[in-house]
């Protein structure tokens, strides 16, 4: 019996574990102050990409067995700052249910007076309230809340042991990257929905068709498709986007962020039908 729900998850999980092994190697072997600091900078963007996969996992667990999923979530927690069931509560049964209503959305981009937040304001506010809001949603889902709290306790205990053993390396290899990844992840989500007020899923998200971006983020650029069917495995999102493309306005596309685009990062695009079709011809059938 296979350990994975979907075979497409095998290589990504192997890569996440390799990154974690490198984290541990730097933590246990670095004797110069500059190496952990350099590692923090070098891995900032890759760990942001891993956050996208953590997101996919908390929508649809990668393993068939709960203990393996909890172990993977410990790794994800150290890499992204988003622990077990935090994204499930804040995002899956929070944001996805409420993103069309800015009075309820856990990732709301509107201020209380109805005006639009700026990037930094949104990112700081959403990052700082992420765990309180996850806990608040969890009061409606007590089973998930218990796992969230228990795994949070385990994550904190392990982080405490790492600080006890070597506080400097723990700070720069684990704690600061956790905080930075959480912030960068929230900052990236600002561009998913900001300014869009509608009741239609096809019109409520910006999309990114850049091939490299979708390779690194598990097709997160097909965001309207993801919201239309949030339980769909990441490998099948391009095909759903292709089915929805005719209903997605041409103005709801963006450039990817750094490092894929250095000039005009996250800028809005207006794609022609031919440009959308050309991008979709690059999509391989799921499982191929």
TrEMBL record:
One of its GO terms (biological process) is lipid metabolic process. The keyword Membrane applies. The chain crosses the membrane at residues 12-30, 144-164, 170-191. Residues 32-250 form the Fatty acid desaturase domain. Pfam families: FA_desaturase (PF00487). Keywords: Membrane, Transmembrane, Transmembrane helix. This is Fatty acid desaturase.
